[in-house]
Design goal:
With about 375 residues, the protein is of the alpha+beta class. It contains 11 helices and 13 strands. The protein binds alpha-D-galactopyranose.
Length: about 375
């Protein structure tokens, strides 16, 4: 599927700019468990998938840069010396942000043209934004021989998101998209930005995504609010991040925080623990245990961290009613997007059909089902 995407982007580039482009594919990600823990210095467990962003780029001698978002049929011309954030919510900010952050590091780039297109829906909680940022930084690094390491590149992508898109995201999405490894999920320690790959073979089970088709917008202050609530509690406890804190530590300041924020911090502490337990469960091939941890994660996201929505909760409730689903939870930032389900392979089709029907009945709209393969991270396409 992504092969066709790459071909389409390439053909368009040749037609528009009459030169052979450099081709980059940058994947989206799933996350098995470990939500809203990355910006708390905790553990996450993501994997890159076979869907993402294909980008074609080349140097330009027109005296300016051109960027084209093929899916949106939108084109913009800009000058490198005059980069500034565009209006909130516009796709240019992902490109401008990366360019600005490269320039901030005193790396010199020249004019360039870029055309890109994706096959993960935006707002699905699968990090189309990180995929786009990474495709831009990776492509520019190649094109202008910037000598950036992959770690430097993801930090540039993350800063682009902070400063141009306005979401104070953690490092999970950019890391997973850049460093993804075929057939593996990555247990990433966000304190050190180092990951351990885990081969994923659930034998007669598989991961299945169901998209509520409710589009979240993370720049909705809700995400940034969660982050600053966590940071203020860490500050009260005189630590860098909530990663350093135990449930007992948190109890010491119970009188100094609101009950809502207390629950949020408690969720983070527990989710970091669950993520480490999940890695053990995978190692021991204990899928029942893994499934239970995944359900517990959703419970925390719904009731303690409060980043779910009715549609996501409904999909998880449907999963709970079916004994062939070992675990299900919302995935990504929340307020919409996908659930991730650990389900018996033989039942995946019939479950997704019956859930789709129930979802339609309840909300009078469609959900979408995705089967994904765990794949390699951002790379050049030859
Ligand atoms: C978004 C952010 C990530 C992470 C998740 C929640 O995807 O970009 O950094 O915080 O939400 O786990």
């Amino acid at each position: 599927m992504s092969k066709e995407l790459i071909k389409e982007v390439k053909i368009n580039f040749l037609k528009t700019f009459k030169t052979e482009p450099l081709l980059v594919f940058s994947p989206g990600r799933i996350n098995i468990i470990g939500e809203h823990t990355d910006y708390n210095g905790g553990f996450v467990f993501p994997a890159a998938v076979d869907k993402g962003i294909a980008a074609a780029l080349q140097k330009s001698d027109s005296g300016h840069c051109t960027a084209i978002a093929l899916d949106l049929d939108s084109r913009i011309e800009f000058e490198l010396a005059k980069i500034k954030p565009s209006k909130e919510g516009s796709w240019e900010n992902y490109v401008f942000g990366v360019v600005a952050e490269i320039q901030n590091r005193n790396k010199i780039i020249g004019d360039f043209n870029i055309i890109f297109k994706g096959n993960i829906p935006g707002g699905a909680g699968m990090s189309s934004s990180a995929a786009l940022e990474n495709s831009v930084v990776f492509g520019l690094n190649e094109l202008f021989d910037l000598g950036l390491t992959k770690t430097e590149m993801i930090l540039i992508s993350q800063k682009a998101e902070h400063n141009y898109v306005g979401v104070k995201c953690g490092i999970m999405d950019q890391y997973a998209s850049m460093f993804g490894k075929k057939n593996n999920a990555l247990l990433l320690d966000c304190r050190t930005i180092k990951a351990k790959p885990y081969k994923i073979n659930f034998k007669d089970h598989q991961l299945l995504l169901i998209n509520t088709n409710v589009k979240h917008s993370l720049s909705d202050s809700a995400y940034n609010d969660r982050r600053s609530a966590c940071e203020s509690i860490a500050k009260l406890l005189k630590v860098e991040t909530l990663r350093e804190v135990s449930e007992e530590d948190l109890e010491q300041i119970i009188d100094k925080v609101t009950p809502e924020n207390y629950q949020k911090a408690l969720y983070v502490i527990q989710e970091i623990e669950r993520t480490q337990k999940a890695a053990k469960a995978i190692q021991n091939n204990d899928l029942d245990k893994l499934g239970a941890l995944i359900y517990a994660s959703h419970n925390g996201l719904q009731h303690q961290y409060k980043v779910s929505c009715d549609e996501l909760d409904f999909l998880v409730d449907q999963a709970k009613k079916n004994k062939n689903v070992l675990g299900a939870r919302m995935m990504g930032g929340g307020f919409g997007g996908c659930t991730i389900n650990l389900i018996a392979k033989s039942e995946a089709k019939s479950f997704s059909e019956s859930v789709a029907k129930a979802y339609k009945n309840k909300f009078n709209k469609e959900c979408s089902v995705y089967f994904v393969t765990l794949s390699d991270g951002t790379h050049l396409v030859k």
